[in-house]
């Protein structure tokens, strides 16, 4: 019985402490997202890509966007499919970003394709 308690205690002790809640957590890296988006369009993986990109766009439009990059194109003027294409193109040009959060790359790709205009 004691060895089991010791194993559980060691396992709990090695868990990471609570992360800083102000920092974005990458559940899906850009590299993971790239693999999902490269899948057959009728597959579940591509469906996950499509859903993830749509959710990332929602984050990009939000005033609490953690990356400070503005998406200035209105949601009515871009489709999720187009955002997937832009993200794929961004990753082809910036392969080193594969370790960044997937949301970062989506927001960066769409922002680069549709830069904000100066209001002056």
Quick description:
The chain has 120 residues and is mainly alpha-helical.
Would you write up a description of this structure?
The protein is an all-alpha fold. 53% of the residues lie in helices and 0% in strands. The chain has one domain (23-113): 10k-s Protein, Hypothetical Protein A, Chain A (Orthogonal Bundle). Helix 2 packs across helix 5 (102-113), helix 3 (44-61) crosses helix 4 (80-93) and helix 4 (80-93) crosses helix 5 (102-113). The chain is globular. The model is unreliable at 1-20 (pLDDT under 50).
Question: Topology, pairings included?
Answer:
Blueprint: H1 2-13, H2 30-37, H3 44-61, H4 80-93, H5 102-113
- Second rung of CATH, namely the architecture: Orthogonal Bundle
Arithmetic mean pLDDT: 76
How many strand elements? Answer: 0
Report on the biggest sheet.
Answer: none
Could you list some keywords that capture this structure?
120 residues; mainly alpha; 10k-s Protein, Hypothetical Protein A, Chain A; 5 helices; 53% helix; disordered N terminus
């Amino acid at each position: 019985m004691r060895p089991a308690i010791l194993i559980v205690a060691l396992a709990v002790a090695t868990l990471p402490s609570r992360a800083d809640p102000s920092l974005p957590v990458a559940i899906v890296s850009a590299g993971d997202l790239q693999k999902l988006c490269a899948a057959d369009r009728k597959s579940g993986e591509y469906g996950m890509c499509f859903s993830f990109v749509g959710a990332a766009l929602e984050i990009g439009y939000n005033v609490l966007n953690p990356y400070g990059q503005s998406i200035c194109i209105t949601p009515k003027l871009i489709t999720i499919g187009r955002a997937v294409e832009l993200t794929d193109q961004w990753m082809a040009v910036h392969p080193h970003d594969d370790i960044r959060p997937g949301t970062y790359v989506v927001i960066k790709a769409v922002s680069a394709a549709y830069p904000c205009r100066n209001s002056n």
